Amino acid sequence: MGHNHSYNQPNIKHHCKSCTSIRPNKSPSLSPTNPLIFIIYHNLLGFHPFNPLCPFNPPRFIGATNHRRPMAPKDRKPHVSRNPDLIRGVGKYSRSKMYHKRGLWAIKAKNGGAFPKHEKQAAAAAPAEKPPKFYPADDVKKPLVNKRKARPTKLRASITPGTVLIILAGRFKGKRVVFLKQLTSGLLLVTGPFKINGVPLRRVNQSYVIATSTKVDISGVNVEKFDDKYFGKKVEKKKKKGEGEFFEAEKEEKNVLPQDKKDDQKTVDAALIAAIEAVPDLKSYLGARFSLKAGMKPHELVF
Protein backbone atom coordinates (compact mmCIF):
# COMPACT_ATOMS: atom_id res chain seq x y z
CA MET A 1 0.00 0.00 0.00
CA GLY A 2 1.46 3.35 -1.02
CA HIS A 3 1.85 6.54 1.01
CA ASN A 4 -0.69 9.33 1.07
CA HIS A 5 0.83 12.28 -0.85
CA SER A 6 -1.89 14.79 -0.01
CA TYR A 7 0.34 17.72 0.97
CA ASN A 8 0.67 20.66 -1.42
CA GLN A 9 3.67 20.16 -3.65
CA PRO A 10 4.29 19.69 -7.40
CA ASN A 11 3.55 16.26 -8.82
CA ILE A 12 7.10 14.81 -9.08
CA LYS A 13 8.86 11.53 -8.46
CA HIS A 14 9.15 10.54 -4.76
CA HIS A 15 12.51 9.12 -3.63
CA CYS A 16 11.88 7.57 -0.16
CA LYS A 17 13.44 4.10 0.02
CA SER A 18 10.31 2.50 1.49
CA CYS A 19 7.90 4.39 -0.74
CA THR A 20 6.58 2.15 -3.53
CA SER A 21 4.42 4.76 -5.24
CA ILE A 22 6.26 6.73 -7.94
CA ARG A 23 4.31 9.38 -9.79
CA PRO A 24 5.62 11.06 -12.93
CA ASN A 25 6.13 14.78 -13.07
CA LYS A 26 3.26 16.20 -15.10
CA SER A 27 4.57 19.78 -15.00
CA PRO A 28 8.28 19.82 -15.95
CA SER A 29 8.15 23.57 -16.35
CA LEU A 30 8.03 24.00 -12.52
CA SER A 31 11.56 22.56 -12.08
CA PRO A 32 14.29 25.24 -11.66
CA THR A 33 17.00 25.58 -14.28
CA ASN A 34 19.92 26.27 -11.86
CA PRO A 35 21.57 22.89 -10.92
CA LEU A 36 22.21 23.83 -7.24
CA ILE A 37 18.68 25.12 -6.74
CA PHE A 38 17.41 22.02 -8.51
CA ILE A 39 19.20 19.71 -6.02
CA ILE A 40 17.83 21.59 -2.98
CA TYR A 41 14.39 21.77 -4.54
CA HIS A 42 14.50 18.08 -5.42
CA ASN A 43 15.54 17.06 -1.86
CA LEU A 44 12.86 19.18 -0.23
CA LEU A 45 10.20 17.61 -2.39
CA GLY A 46 11.53 14.17 -1.54
CA PHE A 47 11.04 14.70 2.19
CA HIS A 48 8.33 12.48 3.60
CA PRO A 49 7.25 13.31 7.18
CA PHE A 50 5.73 9.87 7.83
CA ASN A 51 8.66 7.77 6.63
CA PRO A 52 11.14 6.95 9.48
CA LEU A 53 13.80 5.88 6.96
CA CYS A 54 13.71 9.13 5.03
CA PRO A 55 17.14 10.88 5.47
CA PHE A 56 15.39 14.24 5.92
CA ASN A 57 13.14 13.03 8.72
CA PRO A 58 14.98 13.55 12.10
CA PRO A 59 14.54 11.14 15.04
CA ARG A 60 11.51 11.78 17.21
CA PHE A 61 13.40 11.86 20.54
CA ILE A 62 16.97 12.25 21.81
CA GLY A 63 18.95 9.05 21.49
CA ALA A 64 16.70 7.55 18.82
CA THR A 65 17.90 6.60 15.34
CA ASN A 66 16.25 6.03 12.00
CA HIS A 67 17.32 2.37 12.00
CA ARG A 68 14.56 -0.14 12.51
CA ARG A 69 16.65 -2.71 14.38
CA PRO A 70 19.63 -2.17 16.70
CA MET A 71 22.92 -3.80 15.75
CA ALA A 72 23.38 -7.21 17.32
CA PRO A 73 26.42 -7.59 19.61
CA LYS A 74 29.40 -9.44 18.21
CA ASP A 75 29.69 -13.07 19.24
CA ARG A 76 32.82 -13.60 21.31
CA LYS A 77 34.22 -17.09 21.24
CA PRO A 78 35.75 -18.53 24.41
CA HIS A 79 39.52 -18.98 24.59
CA VAL A 80 40.50 -22.40 23.21
CA SER A 81 43.92 -23.98 23.37
CA ARG A 82 45.87 -24.14 20.11
CA ASN A 83 46.79 -27.73 20.86
CA PRO A 84 43.64 -29.61 21.90
CA ASP A 85 44.03 -32.90 23.73
CA LEU A 86 43.28 -36.11 21.83
CA ILE A 87 43.30 -37.97 25.10
CA ARG A 88 44.40 -36.84 28.52
CA GLY A 89 48.09 -35.92 28.36
CA VAL A 90 48.42 -36.38 24.55
CA GLY A 91 48.06 -33.29 22.36
CA LYS A 92 46.97 -33.12 18.74
CA TYR A 93 50.23 -31.45 17.62
CA SER A 94 53.76 -32.44 18.49
CA ARG A 95 56.26 -30.33 20.39
CA SER A 96 58.08 -29.23 17.20
CA LYS A 97 54.78 -28.37 15.50
CA MET A 98 53.75 -26.12 18.38
CA TYR A 99 57.21 -24.53 18.29
CA HIS A 100 56.35 -23.18 14.83
CA LYS A 101 52.69 -22.44 15.54
CA ARG A 102 53.56 -20.26 18.53
CA GLY A 103 56.17 -18.32 16.56
CA LEU A 104 59.01 -19.12 18.93
CA TRP A 105 61.36 -19.57 15.99
CA ALA A 106 60.86 -15.91 15.05
CA ILE A 107 61.67 -14.71 18.58
CA LYS A 108 64.80 -16.86 18.62
CA ALA A 109 65.94 -15.63 15.20
CA LYS A 110 65.35 -12.02 16.20
CA ASN A 111 67.70 -12.33 19.21
CA GLY A 112 70.65 -13.98 17.45
CA GLY A 113 69.56 -17.60 17.79
CA ALA A 114 68.88 -17.51 21.53
CA PHE A 115 65.85 -16.71 23.62
CA PRO A 116 66.05 -13.37 25.48
CA LYS A 117 66.93 -13.66 29.15
CA HIS A 118 65.52 -11.33 31.78
CA GLU A 119 67.07 -10.62 35.13
CA LYS A 120 65.19 -12.00 38.07
CA GLN A 121 63.55 -9.43 40.28
CA ALA A 122 64.95 -9.16 43.78
CA ALA A 123 62.78 -10.77 46.39
CA ALA A 124 60.99 -8.34 48.68
CA ALA A 125 62.56 -8.05 52.12
CA ALA A 126 60.61 -9.72 54.88
CA PRO A 127 58.93 -7.27 57.27
CA ALA A 128 60.58 -6.83 60.66
CA GLU A 129 57.30 -7.60 62.39
CA LYS A 130 54.65 -9.91 61.08
CA PRO A 131 51.31 -8.23 60.48
CA PRO A 132 48.62 -9.30 62.93
CA LYS A 133 46.15 -11.92 61.83
CA PHE A 134 43.31 -10.04 63.47
CA TYR A 135 42.62 -6.32 63.54
CA PRO A 136 40.00 -4.27 65.38
CA ALA A 137 36.70 -3.84 63.59
CA ASP A 138 36.40 -0.20 64.66
CA ASP A 139 38.75 2.37 63.19
CA VAL A 140 41.00 3.90 65.84
CA LYS A 141 41.78 7.55 65.21
CA LYS A 142 45.44 8.45 65.42
CA PRO A 143 46.33 11.86 66.83
CA LEU A 144 47.80 14.30 64.35
CA VAL A 145 51.51 14.96 64.56
CA ASN A 146 52.13 18.27 66.30
CA LYS A 147 55.66 19.62 65.94
CA ARG A 148 54.92 22.96 67.53
CA LYS A 149 57.08 23.95 70.47
CA ALA A 150 55.55 25.51 73.54
CA ARG A 151 56.82 29.07 73.82
CA PRO A 152 55.91 31.62 76.49
CA THR A 153 53.25 34.09 75.44
CA LYS A 154 54.70 37.49 74.66
CA LEU A 155 53.47 40.14 77.06
CA ARG A 156 52.39 43.52 75.69
CA ALA A 157 54.90 46.28 76.30
CA SER A 158 52.23 48.46 77.94
CA ILE A 159 51.52 45.82 80.62
CA THR A 160 54.06 45.80 83.45
CA PRO A 161 53.75 44.65 87.10
CA GLY A 162 51.60 47.18 88.97
CA THR A 163 49.76 48.50 85.88
CA VAL A 164 46.06 49.24 86.33
CA LEU A 165 44.01 47.34 83.72
CA ILE A 166 40.40 47.68 82.56
CA ILE A 167 38.61 44.35 82.03
CA LEU A 168 36.50 44.34 78.84
CA ALA A 169 34.68 41.00 79.05
CA GLY A 170 33.44 38.44 81.50
CA ARG A 171 31.87 38.65 84.91
CA PHE A 172 33.86 41.73 85.97
CA LYS A 173 33.78 43.73 82.71
CA GLY A 174 34.28 47.44 83.26
CA LYS A 175 36.16 46.89 86.54
CA ARG A 176 39.67 48.27 87.11
CA VAL A 177 42.22 45.78 88.46
CA VAL A 178 45.93 45.71 89.33
CA PHE A 179 48.25 43.47 87.30
CA LEU A 180 50.54 41.35 89.51
CA LYS A 181 52.44 38.97 87.16
CA GLN A 182 52.18 36.75 84.07
CA LEU A 183 51.68 33.02 84.63
CA THR A 184 53.27 30.16 82.69
CA SER A 185 50.12 29.71 80.57
CA GLY A 186 50.38 33.32 79.37
CA LEU A 187 47.40 34.52 81.42
CA LEU A 188 47.61 37.58 83.65
CA LEU A 189 47.27 37.38 87.43
CA VAL A 190 45.17 40.33 88.61
CA THR A 191 43.29 41.45 91.70
CA GLY A 192 40.88 44.31 92.47
CA PRO A 193 41.76 44.38 95.36
CA PHE A 194 38.69 42.45 96.49
CA LYS A 195 38.04 44.83 99.40
CA ILE A 196 37.84 47.86 97.06
CA ASN A 197 35.89 46.69 93.98
CA GLY A 198 35.06 43.01 94.62
CA VAL A 199 37.47 41.48 92.07
CA PRO A 200 39.35 38.53 93.66
CA LEU A 201 42.63 36.98 92.61
CA ARG A 202 41.96 35.58 89.15
CA ARG A 203 43.47 34.89 85.73
CA VAL A 204 42.65 37.11 82.73
CA ASN A 205 43.60 36.93 79.06
CA GLN A 206 45.54 39.97 77.92
CA SER A 207 43.36 40.18 74.78
CA TYR A 208 40.44 41.35 76.94
CA VAL A 209 42.08 44.14 78.92
CA ILE A 210 43.08 47.76 78.30
CA ALA A 211 46.33 48.91 79.88
CA THR A 212 46.22 52.36 81.46
CA SER A 213 49.06 54.71 82.31
CA THR A 214 48.26 54.42 86.05
CA LYS A 215 50.63 52.24 88.07
CA VAL A 216 50.70 50.93 91.64
CA ASP A 217 53.79 50.04 93.66
CA ILE A 218 53.54 46.27 94.31
CA SER A 219 57.06 45.74 95.64
CA GLY A 220 55.62 44.74 99.03
CA VAL A 221 53.25 42.11 97.57
CA ASN A 222 54.44 38.47 97.51
CA VAL A 223 52.95 36.50 94.57
CA GLU A 224 55.44 33.61 94.29
CA LYS A 225 52.98 30.92 95.41
CA PHE A 226 50.43 31.69 92.69
CA ASP A 227 50.60 29.59 89.51
CA ASP A 228 48.18 27.88 87.11
CA LYS A 229 47.76 24.86 89.39
CA TYR A 230 46.59 27.15 92.19
CA PHE A 231 43.49 28.05 90.13
CA GLY A 232 42.78 24.52 88.86
CA LYS A 233 39.56 22.82 89.88
CA LYS A 234 39.61 19.49 91.67
CA VAL A 235 37.74 16.77 89.79
CA GLU A 236 35.85 14.39 92.06
CA LYS A 237 34.66 10.97 90.93
CA LYS A 238 30.91 10.66 90.89
CA LYS A 239 29.49 7.89 93.04
CA LYS A 240 26.88 5.53 91.66
CA LYS A 241 23.45 6.23 93.05
CA GLY A 242 21.37 3.51 94.60
CA GLU A 243 17.67 2.96 94.04
CA GLY A 244 16.70 5.17 96.94
CA GLU A 245 19.02 8.03 96.02
CA PHE A 246 17.96 7.90 92.37
CA PHE A 247 14.37 8.92 93.10
CA GLU A 248 15.29 11.56 95.66
CA ALA A 249 15.48 15.16 94.54
CA GLU A 250 19.02 16.33 94.04
CA LYS A 251 20.04 19.23 96.21
CA GLU A 252 22.28 21.85 94.66
CA GLU A 253 25.42 22.22 96.69
CA LYS A 254 27.08 25.63 96.66
CA ASN A 255 30.79 25.78 95.93
CA VAL A 256 32.40 26.99 99.13
CA LEU A 257 35.78 28.70 98.77
CA PRO A 258 38.46 27.00 100.88
CA GLN A 259 39.71 28.94 103.90
CA ASP A 260 43.34 28.94 102.74
CA LYS A 261 42.37 30.83 99.56
CA LYS A 262 40.46 33.36 101.62
CA ASP A 263 43.57 33.93 103.74
CA ASP A 264 45.72 34.37 100.62
CA GLN A 265 43.31 37.01 99.32
CA LYS A 266 43.47 38.94 102.59
CA THR A 267 47.28 38.81 102.65
CA VAL A 268 47.61 40.20 99.11
CA ASP A 269 44.94 42.86 99.67
CA ALA A 270 46.54 44.11 102.90
CA ALA A 271 49.90 44.83 101.24
CA LEU A 272 48.26 46.26 98.10
CA ILE A 273 45.77 48.55 99.86
CA ALA A 274 48.60 50.11 101.88
CA ALA A 275 50.31 51.13 98.61
CA ILE A 276 47.03 52.35 97.07
CA GLU A 277 46.08 54.56 100.01
CA ALA A 278 49.45 56.29 99.76
CA VAL A 279 48.34 57.78 96.41
CA PRO A 280 45.48 60.32 96.61
CA ASP A 281 42.24 59.48 94.72
CA LEU A 282 43.64 56.11 93.58
CA LYS A 283 41.31 54.13 95.83
CA SER A 284 38.19 55.82 94.43
CA TYR A 285 39.60 55.43 90.88
CA LEU A 286 39.91 51.66 91.31
CA GLY A 287 36.45 51.44 92.87
CA ALA A 288 34.75 53.25 89.95
CA ARG A 289 33.50 51.24 86.96
CA PHE A 290 34.70 52.25 83.49
CA SER A 291 31.95 53.13 81.01
CA LEU A 292 31.41 55.21 77.89
CA LYS A 293 29.00 58.14 77.88
CA ALA A 294 27.28 60.05 75.11
CA GLY A 295 29.69 62.08 72.99
CA MET A 296 32.79 60.13 74.06
CA LYS A 297 34.98 58.87 71.21
CA PRO A 298 36.80 55.65 72.21
CA HIS A 299 39.55 56.06 69.61
CA GLU A 300 40.47 59.46 71.04
CA LEU A 301 40.56 58.42 74.72
CA VAL A 302 43.88 58.35 76.55
CA PHE A 303 43.94 55.82 79.37
TrEMBL record:
| Pfam families, per the entry | Ribosomal_L6e, Ribosomal_L6e_N
* CDD domains referenced in this protein's UniProt entry, alphabetically: KOW_RPL6
GO molecular function, a single term: structural constituent of ribosome
Taxonomy, superkingdom? Eukaryota
Q: Which GO terms describe its biological process?
A: cytoplasmic translation
Q: What are the entry keywords?
A: Ribonucleoprotein, Ribosomal protein
List residues of the Large ribosomal subunit protein uL6 N-terminal domain.
73-131
Q: Where is the chain membrane-spanning?
A: none
- Residues of the region (Disordered) are 1-20
Gene Ontology CC terms? cytosolic large ribosomal subunit
Q: Where is the composition biased (Polar residues)?
A: 1-11
Q: Which PANTHER family match?
A: 60S RIBOSOMAL PROTEIN L6, LARGE RIBOSOMAL SUBUNIT PROTEIN EL6
Tell me the protein family, please: Belongs to the eukaryotic ribosomal protein eL6 family.
Name listed for the protein in its UniProt record: 60S ribosomal protein L6
Q: Which gene encodes it?
A: RL6
